[in-house]
Amino acid sequence: MLHPRRRTSRALKALSETASGHDIVVSTDSGAVTLxxxxxxxxxxxxxHIEVNAKLEQARSLRALADDRHAELGHIxxxxxxxxxxxxxxxxxxxxxxxxxxxxxxxxxAISTVSQKERHGLSGLVGRVGDWNxxxxxxxxxxxxxxxxxxxxxxxxxxxxxxDFDPATNVRTQAQVAIDQAGTLEGEAKSASAELAAxxxxxxxxxxxxxxxxxxxxxxxxxxxxxxxxxxxxxxQLKRGERALAVIPARLARQQSRTQYVGGSQGMSFxxxxxxxxxxVGSFHGHPVQTQVMTTLDSGNLEITNQRIAFIGAVKxxxxxxxxxxxxxxxxxxxxxxxxxxxxxxxxxxDRPQYALFMLNWATAQT
Length: 367
Description:
Blueprint: E1 18-20, E2 23-28, E3 31-34, H1 38-79, H2 91-116, H3 121-159, H4 168-213, H5 217-227, E4 244-262, E5 265-271, E6 278-284, E7 287-305, E8 308-313, E9 317-321, E10 325-330, E11 334-339, E12 346-349, H6 353-366
Antiparallel strand pairs: 1-2, 2-3, 4-7, 4-12, 5-6, 7-8, 8-9, 10-11, 11-12
């Protein structure tokens, strides 16, 4: 059983494939994974954002159209009181709408009158200034009253019972069709937004894995669960039933012991004749000190199969069956593999230790 410092989940839930267009979505321990490349997923999310925004914008346009039709319907109801039976609760709103409409009509008449006047000479200039002030005041008052009247007409149309006369019936039908279409689009946008949120959560997980491990680990896990490993060519002579899963450039290194004596001696020395040799009387009190040194033995390829992990170098090769691996330690630049009956591990120095660990975990999970 492997016990790496950095683990990638080996256990996968029962495979769940659902069609989303032509996509396959796989349920894993880390969450749902869509079997498309990371860049394709990002593009899909951008397209889905555009789609959702387009639906919402179209729904807003339809809502605005429905309001226009309701305002038109309210005007028809206010100006045709004899063609329908207005409930008593609508009487105050109808009276207020007629009052606002009357004030707007007065302002419009004033503006029209001013525009038809002709002024000449100096006195005409003074008159034109007065007319401009009168017209400006009327226009400002009409601009203030129009939104109030529109809101009131919409409220009347929405509160009134169904009318059985044209054109009120047709206008109400048009308003309802616009509302129904807007509701459909808003429902579709809501559903698409929920899918979009799931896709963005998946993108966040896969982006984080890409940054941490150097490859899209969730995608690879989902792909392996769905299709199994792709064929890989390597230098290892495979056994019957053995399949190569990954071949990674690496260097084999091991820790080796070096012994050094440290200490001193006691005594005295004197020369022997004219030989230049000094003879020392006393004893040596040094002691051996062992240090561990990492030594690179060879460069080659680290090959992981469904049965073993092997290193094939120019002058040095080694392999160990998956069942004899005690545990694995993953470093930023190496993978340390501990095996039975050996105290020191083999160190495989590589630029892709996380990927090697991932494939080793997956291979071990299959045995």
